[in-house]
């Protein structure tokens, strides 16, 4: 039910959305309302996709902006679909690193571009 | 002599003094006959022969300017002398040429230019002037001269033969300015269309115009000349397609440009091809047909653009049409036949391929080729039908069958496009049996999609003249019966109803013998809901009855059917009274809707309409009156026919019947109805042995079941066209007034008020109307007066208010002079402690369309733009009233205002709203949800379009909008969040200071319990996050 929030995020390298690229799918989104938890697994287009961290970050940021503060948001790579799966997951789970990343104005710019409503 | 001196003075002033105004004075002199052009030449004398070219040019400039203003007053002798002079001047210094051209332009417009001079002029022009080295405006002069002379001296120019064409080719060769090109294209087209000799220059002529094809021109921003790409494209196309002699050059060019990657070039090429095919025949086309077909096919098969596809199909149709018009030589082959063979060969195998990838494009191509002519259609059909029939049987999957049947349907439809001779057999006859089997198998398929397309194909097939036999039709009706009465899917059922409507108009008898009895039987069977659980998919008994009722209306397309269906519906309506299931009133309303549909079908059909008037209207009245009269006698349960909504439904049927334009019939029966209500004359009713008298106007004694039937009287008398005069109108109005002011029954007095309003709206203007209105006004005034201490007053004032409201609407619509007085009364009532809220809501009645009276369908007198007028007249008053009102009443003003604002189109509002802005902002704090919602609706477009004005109030806006995001009403929450989203469109420096606060505040609606609210909150918050961030 929360897929509609992230389906329209643009891919940093394509003119297509994450849903159109099958990066995010309904069945990999898990929401437990009473436990206040949201978990999204995304599948990078290729195992060596260099943008995986950025995509994960975009999803995370979008959810943080769109969900009530009570939710704990977990974004990770679908197991077995990326070469450096663990490293990326660790980065995305680390609050400090996410916050630090968003203070980098260049990175924020790319993330915002992914999140802009397409005309 | 004095005149001469003055002349010399003016000339001197212009040439040496560089005063341009002198030219105008001189021109006025020439026009008034005070001096002549030749005198000016004389006065110019020396400066025309001066050795300094600058002086000479100044002299010529003066003369040309004078001539441009005064050419119509020149005499032939003068024109001759001047023309010879100017032609000679063409040889002079180049800085003089522009002014010489202006002079020649002036002379070319003179109607007395002597014969022969036009030719000399042009010869000299072509010889002495190198057009393309001139400035744009001077080149424009050249084209103007040529065009002027072509308009008036066509015969003389033609004596130049091909030299003229050649001269023009040289003149325009290399032209680049769009303004000049438009002119040059126009001249080129005239040369061709008016049969100027092209001689050996056909190819050259084509080259100098076709080099611009395809035109790619983007007008500069703020272009004052307003030339569009479209204009140039059309103008060039009209040159290129003007003559078949260009065919051998044009067609290869088009084929080449179709290869282009630019979409606009493709579209332009295809459109040009479509246009030129109108003039081309086999002779021109033959050589290029294979290449053209190849290109078109490629475009249709491969393109991703619908536009290119559509143009490609149009071009193919044009080609096929042009070949169909070509004369068939006795010896040569039939080019249409050969071409279509080619098309068929390339498309056929795609229809047979199992993956069906190119099926639709191929079908579209074939269809385009076939729609050119009857001959093309027969040729393609004879080949395509056996093929498609075979394919249908070969494919077993319903999705593939669905595709094939869809294609078949289109080809069947295509045949109807041409009139056949009587004796010609329908070309489909050979395939009829197969088609029927195929369609019927689709109708029994389990796939909904296939059933739907099967139903619509059946409709197309049955509308073909003399194709299906009567047994085929009967079988079809059996299938439709099954789909309507047994099919679970509502879409299929709707498709079946639609098909029944189409077929019944052509084949009424099968529907009378087969469908009507089946539906009747269904209506008469009482089903217990529980019985159905064996078959969970089948529609329940109640839903089935509804379908039968709808079906009866759907097939009432032919008088003979109407006579069968209407009695069934009426009988069922009568039976409903005895029903006990609890949903009778819904069913009664449904029957009324069906009857109304039948009434609409009947319009314009004399026989059915007559029948409807004789049968339905008296029967409905009879039923209603019988119930009303008997109920109070027997004190038993009140029947469904006393319910307000059922009576309203009755009213819509009667209203539809009487709004029909047929004057004579309506005026005959209307007097019976009026007599029925005024005098209790029941002779016109079908069963008139009533147990009691029908006296609706015997107020206050008459009981409400009787008086509320005024609604039916209103439906009849207020729906009449304007030219029918309601009998006993004055008496009727009087009784209605009485009822409206005395009845205690809300539905009764509202209906009476509406009825008065409806009659007054159409009342012819004049003294009589004024006196009626004066009486009414007096009653209203005394009725509205407040007497403290009288308890029963509240109802009586509401009654009078209702009357006032409807009467105001009636007068506002027709721009009556009293409308303003009445509206003012309503505005005053906004501060009334009892009626204030009702008055505020009343404004929505004034400005919105009402469903039963005072609308277009009932022929009311409605002036255009009455809402705008009402707006400009009354909004200032409302605003003023708002400012001076006490706190308790402010919301009433706001509500009234918001009703008026909401009724106007947004683009009209945009100009008025900024002045109302402070008021709107205040309205956001009003506690009334209707006011809040409509205010938000007004603010939203303003936020997007009037950013400057809105920026001034950003603090207030942010505060108030954020407050509203926690409103208890979902719609208000959504609208306020939408406005919050729109706020981000204001200039960044204005809104950025609010960003942290807004983002924090918008976190709350993210957790709203309604999904739609959350959605808007996410949109708005996301947009606010992006504000001022890099990358947004």
3D structure, described in words:
The complex is a heterodimer of chains A (119) and B (1032). Chain A is α+β, with helices and mostly antiparallel strands and 119 residues long. Chain A has a single domain (3-114), classed as Fe-S cluster assembly (FSCA) (GMP Synthetase, Chain A, domain 3, 2-Layer Sandwich). In chain A, 40% of the residues lie in helices and 13% in strands. Chain A is built from five helices and three strands, in the order αββαβααα. Chain A has a three-stranded mixed β-sheet with strand order 1-2-3. The two termini of chain A are 24 Å apart. In chain B, 70% of the residues lie in helices and 0% in strands. The longest helix of chain B has 29 residues, at 606-634. The radius of gyration of chain B is 40 Å and the shape is globular. Classes of the chains: A alpha+beta (119), B mainly alpha (1032). Chain A: It holds the Pfam family FeS_assembly_P. Chain A: It comes from Chiloscyllium punctatum (Brownbanded bambooshark).
The largest pleated sheet of chain A is described as:
3 strands, mixed
Helix content of chain B: 55-70%
Task: State the helicity of chain A in percent bands.
Answer: 40-55%
Most residues in contact, chain pair and counts: A-B, 20 and 16 residues
Assign an overall shape of chain A. Answer: globular
How many β-strand runs of chain B? Answer: 0
Q: Give the topology string of chain A: H per helix, E per strand.
A: HEEHEHHH
Which CATH architecture of chain A? 2-Layer Sandwich
Number of H- or I-type helical stretches of chain A? 5
Q: Number of helical segments of chain B?
A: 51
The fraction of residues assigned to DSSP E strands of chain A is 5-15%
The domain tally of chain A reads: 1
Report the count of strand segments of chain A.
Answer: 3
């Amino acid at each position: 039910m929360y897929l509609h929030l992230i389906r329209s995020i643009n891919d940093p390298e394509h003119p297509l959305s994450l849903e159109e690229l099958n990066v995010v799918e309904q069945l990999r989104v898990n929401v437990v309302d009473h436990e206040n938890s949201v978990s999204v697994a995304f599948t990078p287009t290729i195992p060596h996709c260099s943008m995986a961290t950025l995509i994960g970050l975009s999803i995370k940021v979008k959810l943080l902006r769109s969900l009530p503060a009570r939710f704990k948001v977990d974004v990770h790579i679908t197991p077995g679909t990326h070469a450096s799966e663990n490293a990326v997951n660790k980065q995305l789970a680390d609050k400090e690193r996410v916050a630090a990343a968003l203070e980098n104005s260049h990175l924020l710019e790319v993330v915002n571009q992914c999140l802009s409503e397409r005309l | 002599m004095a005149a001469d001196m003055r002349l010399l003075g003016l000339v001197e002033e212009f040439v040496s003094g560089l005063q341009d105004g002198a030219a105008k004075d001189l021109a006025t002199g020439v026009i008034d006959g005070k001096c002549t052009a030749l005198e000016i030449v004389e006065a110019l004398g020396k400066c025309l022969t001066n050795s300094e070219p600058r002086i000479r040019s100044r002299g010529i400039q003066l003369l040309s300017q004078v001539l441009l203003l005064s050419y119509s007053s020149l005499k032939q002798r003068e024109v001759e002398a001047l023309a010879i002079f100017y032609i000679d001047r063409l040889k002079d210094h180049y800085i003089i040429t522009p002014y010489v051209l202006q002079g020649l332009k002036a002379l070319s417009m003179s109607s007395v230019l002597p014969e022969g001079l036009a030719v000399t002029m042009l010869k000299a022009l072509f010889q002495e002037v190198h057009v393309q080295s001139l400035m744009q405006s001077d080149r424009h002069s050249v084209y103007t001269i040529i065009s002027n002379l072509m308009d008036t001296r066509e015969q003389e120019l033609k004596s130049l033969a091909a030299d003229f064409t050649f001269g023009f080719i040289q003149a325009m060769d290399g032209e680049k300015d769009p303004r000049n090109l438009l002119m040059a294209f126009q001249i080129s087209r005239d040369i061709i269309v008016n049969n100027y000799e092209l001689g050996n220059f056909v190819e050259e002529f084509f080259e100098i115009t076709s080099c611009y094809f395809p035109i790619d021109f983007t007008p500069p921003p703020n272009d004052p000349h307003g030339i569009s790409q479209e204009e140039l494209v059309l103008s060039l196309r009209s040159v290129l397609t003007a003559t078949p002699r260009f065919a051998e050059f044009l067609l290869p060019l088009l084929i080449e440009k179709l290869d282009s990657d630019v979409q606009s070039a493709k579209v332009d090429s295809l459109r040009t091809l479509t246009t030129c095919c109108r003039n081309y025949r086999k002779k021109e086309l033959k050589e290029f047909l294979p290449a053209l077909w190849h290109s078109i096919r490629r475009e249709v098969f491969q393109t991703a653009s619908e536009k290119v596809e559509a143009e490609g199909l149009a071009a193919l149709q044009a080609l096929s049409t042009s070949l169909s018009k070509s004369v068939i030589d006795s010896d040569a082959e039939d080019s249409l036949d050969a071409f279509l063979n080619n098309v068929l060969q390339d498309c056929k195998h795609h229809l047979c391929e199992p993956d069906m990838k190119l099926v639709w494009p191929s079908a579209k191509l074939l269809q385009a080729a076939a729609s050119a002519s009857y001959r093309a259609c027969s040729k393609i059909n004879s080949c395509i039908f056996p093929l498609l029939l075979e394919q249908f049987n070969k494919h077993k999957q319903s999705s593939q069958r669905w595709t094939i049947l869809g294609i078949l349907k289109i080809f069947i439809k295509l045949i109807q496009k041409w009139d056949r001779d009587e004796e010609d057999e329908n070309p489909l006859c050979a395939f009829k049996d197969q088609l029927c089997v195929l369609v019927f198998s689709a109708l029994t398929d389990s796939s909904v999609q296939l059933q739907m397309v099967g139903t619509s194909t059946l409709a197309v097939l049955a509308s073909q003249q003399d194709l299906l036999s009567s047994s085929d039709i009967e079988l079809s009706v059996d299938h439709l019966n099954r789909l309507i009465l047994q099919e679970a899917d509502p879409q299929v059922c709707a498709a079946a109803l639609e098909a029944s409507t189409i077929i019944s108009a052509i084949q009424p008898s099968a529907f009378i013998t087969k469908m009507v009895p089946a539906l009747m039987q269904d209506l008469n069977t009482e089903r217990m809901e529980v019985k159905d659980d064996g078959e969970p998919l089948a529609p329940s008994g109640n839903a089935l009855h509804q379908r039968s009722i709808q079906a009866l209306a759907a097939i009432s397309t032919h008088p003979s059917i109407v006579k069968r269906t209407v009695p069934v519906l009426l009988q069922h309506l009568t039976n409903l009274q005895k029903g006990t299931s609890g949903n009778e009133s819904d069913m009664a309303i449904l029957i009324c809707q069906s009857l109304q549909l039948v009434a609409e079908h009947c319009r314009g059909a004399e026989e059915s309409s007559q029948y409807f008037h004789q049968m339905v209207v008296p029967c409905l009245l009879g039923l209603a009156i019988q119930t009303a009269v008997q109920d109070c006698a027997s004190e038993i349960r009140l029947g469904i026919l006393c319910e307000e909504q059922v009576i309203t439904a009755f009213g819509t049927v009667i209203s539809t019947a009487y709004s029909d334009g047929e004057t004579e019939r309506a005026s005959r029966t209307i007097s019976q109805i009026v007599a029925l209500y005024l005098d209790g004359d029941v002779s016109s009713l079908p069963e008139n042995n009533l147990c009691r008298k029908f006296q609706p106007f015997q107020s206050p004694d008459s009981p409400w079941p009787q008086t509320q039937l005024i609604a039916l009287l209103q439906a009849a008398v207020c729906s009449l066209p304007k030219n029918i005069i309601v009998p006993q109108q004055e008496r009727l109005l009087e009784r209605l007034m009485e009822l409206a002011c005395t009845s205690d029954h809300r539905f009764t007095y509202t209906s009476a008020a509406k009825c008065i309003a409806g009659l007054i709206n159409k009342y012819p203007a004049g003294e009589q109307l004024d006196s009626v209105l004066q009486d009414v006004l007096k009653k209203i005034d005394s009725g509205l007066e407040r007497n403290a201490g009288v308890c029963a007053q509240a109802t009586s004032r509401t009654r009078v208010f209702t009357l006032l409201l409807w009467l105001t609407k009636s007068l506002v619509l027709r721009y009556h002079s009293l409308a303003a007085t009445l509206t003012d009364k309503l505005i005053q009532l906004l501060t009334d402690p009892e009626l204030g809220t009702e008055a505020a809501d009343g404004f929505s009645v004034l400005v919105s369309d009402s469903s039963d009276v005072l609308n277009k369908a009932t022929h009311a007198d409605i002036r255009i733009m009455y809402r705008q007028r009402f707006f400009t007249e009354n909004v200032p008053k409302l605003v003023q009233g708002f400012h001076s009102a006490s706190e308790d009443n402010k919301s009433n003003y706001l509500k009234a205002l918001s009703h008026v604002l909401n009724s106007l189109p947004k683009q009209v509002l945009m100009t008025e709203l900024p002045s109302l802005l402070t008021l709107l902002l205040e309205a956001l704090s009003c506690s009334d949800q209707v006011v809040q919602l409509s205010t938000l609706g007004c603010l939203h477009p303003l936020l997007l379009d009037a950013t400057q004005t809105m920026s001034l109030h950003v603090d207030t806006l942010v505060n108030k909008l954020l407050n509203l995001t926690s409103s208890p009403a979902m719609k208000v929450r959504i609208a306020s969040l939408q406005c919050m989203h729109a706020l981000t469109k204001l200039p960044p420096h204005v809104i950025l200071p609010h960003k942290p606060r807004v983002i924090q505040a918008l976190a709350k609606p993210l957790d709203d319990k309604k999904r739609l609210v959350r959605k808007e909150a996410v949109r708005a918050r996301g947009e606010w996050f992006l504000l001022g961030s890099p990358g947004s």
